[in-house]
Design brief:
This protein is globular. Helix content is about 10%, strand content about 35%. The strands form four sheets. A six-stranded antiparallel beta sheet has the order 4-3-6-12-9-10. A four-stranded antiparallel beta sheet has the order 2-14-7-11, with no helix packed on it. It has three helices and 16 strands. The protein has about 250 residues and is mostly beta strands. The longest helix is centred in the N-terminal third of the chain and has 9 residues. It folds into two domains: about 70 residues, no CATH class; about 180 residues, Jelly Rolls, CATH 2.60.120.260.
Length: about 250
């Protein structure tokens, strides 16, 4: 239980925002220049496709986030489903198999000095994931449309070219996936794909995300509250002997 009191703003000699920005680390969204192809048209192994010199000349160029069907529409492979009866004529067959997403990206030497986290904000519905020919997760781990996934890839990335490979599987009957109703027809691909952001997070040995404060205010006197503070943390090393958490609770004038 904490008794709240107002702290004069002039007591702070530094900017809290600058302080937090300085320790939160750099984040890069992997948005453009992805490649997409159906597993029906692939005969290579995942390890071969992770090679930087692997040819993607017959793959579709896409941006993330995007579902498989959305990407094919942008590439002109599928006609606009919002025109006429086009949606009715799109076959579900191509989307009953897995589809491969491939992203090649470049890292500088200074990026390798930090711990590196690979984060997926939304995959529908499950996936196998490789980074630089190393499988880091399979579809039994990466499963669920409304989940986020984080992987420590610090020891797997290289200075220069790196390759991220994701094999996405469609949802099956009974899976807790994205729902539709009769007046909003479901797309033939059932929204399979990487439909939310993918990012790299470069941080120091400790990263703290999703801070949350749950409050219970004493409504009788209004100056005492119970505060429950939680957050998700990533710790790269156990060499840290101590740390300090700073919590600021600005109190408006009454």
């Amino acid at each position: 239980m904490y008794r709240m009191r107002k702290i004069p703003q002039e007591n702070f000699t530094y900017s809290i925002k600058e302080r937090l920005d300085g320790i939160s680390g750099k984040r890069i969204k992997l948005v453009d220049d992805w490649r997409l192809q159906s597993s029906e048209k692939i005969t290579n192994s995942a390890e071969d496709m992770c090679r930087p010199d692997f040819s993607v000349s017959k793959w579709h160029r896409v941006s993330i986030p995007s579902t498989v069907m959305g990407s094919l529409i942008k590439n002109g492979i599928i006609k606009d489903p919002y025109f006429g009866l086009n949606l009715y004529h799109i076959s579900e067959k191509p989307f009953k198999v897995s589809w491969w997403y491939r992203k090649q990206f470049f890292l500088k030497n200074q990026d390798l000095a930090h711990a590196t986290i690979l984060q997926f904000d939304g995959i529908n519905y499950s996936a196998n994931i490789w980074i630089n020919r190393k499988k880091i997760a399979d579809s039994t781990e990466v499963e669920g449309a409304f989940r986020q996934f984080k992987f420590d890839i610090t020891e797997l990335i290289n200075e220069g070219e790196n390759v991220l490979l994701v094999e996405v599987f469609p949802p099956q009957p009974g899976d807790f996936s994205i729902g539709f109703v009769d007046w909003n027809p479901a797309p033939p691909d059932k929204n399979m794909g990487i439909f939310r952001d993918v990012r790299l997070h470069f941080c120091e040995n400790v990263s703290i995300d999703y801070p949350f404060v749950k409050t219970h205010l004493d409504s009788d006197i209004l100056d005492i509250a119970e505060l429950t503070i939680s957050a998700e943390s990533f710790i790269k090393t156990f060499q840290i002997s101590s740390g300090v958490a700073l919590f600021l609770f600005p109190i408006p004038n009454r």
